[in-house]
Write a structure and sequence with these properties.
The complex is a heterodimer of chains A (about 110) and B (about 110). By secondary structure, chain A is an all-beta fold. Chain A has no helices and eleven strands. Chain B is globular, with a radius of gyration of 14 Å. The interface between A and B is medium-sized, with 23 and 25 residues.
Chain lengths: ~110, ~110
């Protein structure tokens, strides 16, 4: 059981380049999430997918798009990268345990935009 | 709206001393509360969660947290710090009113001195 996996682990882009961050989970979870982590700001939700076929904006969606390819996979795309998108990106999936969802996180992708 | 405040972005403790990390939340409805730990260059790992059952919650690695509604707090403690506790800790809140989305605090980095 690999849990939540993310690729790539590291990436350096130039301003204006595009890229897609990949996320997959093998826990049969319905919900998946993308966060960004910046120093002193905790994690902020970019987009989430409550179930296969649905996606919704989170707190900081501007400059990003997502695709819920199937139940396992949830990708995050930067169409035209900007230095402000330099961050660590985490994918998570969640399952109902008892009376609340619990989220499980991947190892992260460290992105630098020059 | 829901929010989380973690008092102190950095905490330094001696090995064997009490670890106390403070978390206060703001929510107009009953919350679910979580503590996550992040070791260097890794994703977030769930330490414990409060889901309206017992107010004192025990988690992994000897940590526990107490939900105090009157103080809107969910502080994390460990009686005796170990070198392996050096990490960043995040408090998070979730309510049905916010569409089950997690809101994170800014994080507290713990340094353990020998």
């Amino acid at each position: 059981n690999a849990g939540v996996t993310q690729t790539p682990k590291f990436q350096v882009l130039k301003t204006g380049q595009s890229m897609t961050l990949q996320c997959a989970q093998d826990m049969n979870h319905n919900s998946m999430y993308w966060y960004r982590q910046d120093p002193g700001m905790g994690l902020r939700l970019i987009y989430y997918s409550a179930s296969e076929g649905t996606t919704d904006k989170g707190e900081v969606p501007n400059g990003y798009n997502v695709s819920r390819l199937n139940k396992r996979e949830f990708s995050l795309r930067l169409e035209s990268a900007a230095p402000s998108q330099t961050s660590v990106y985490f994918c998570a999936s969640s399952v109902l345990q008892g009376n609340t969802d619990t989220q499980y996180f991947g190892p992260g992708t460290r992105l630098t935009v020059l | 709206a829901q929010s989380v405040t973690q008092l102190g972005s950095h905490v330094s403790v001696s090995e064997g001393a009490l670890v106390l990390l403070r978390c206060n939340y703001s929510s107009s409805v009953p919350p679910y509360l979580f503590w996550y730990v992040q070791y260097p260059n890794q994703g977030l790992q769930l330490l414990l969660k409060y889901t309206s059952a017992a107010t004192l919650v025990k988690g992994i690695n000897g940590f526990e947290a107490e939900f105090k509604k009157s103080e809107t707090s969910f502080h994390l403690t460990k009686p005796s710090a170990h070198m392996s506790d050096a990490a960043e800790y995040f408090c998070a809140v979730r309510t049905r009113a916010a569409g089950n989305k997690l809101t994170f605090g800014g994080g507290t980095r713990v340094l353990v001195k020998p």
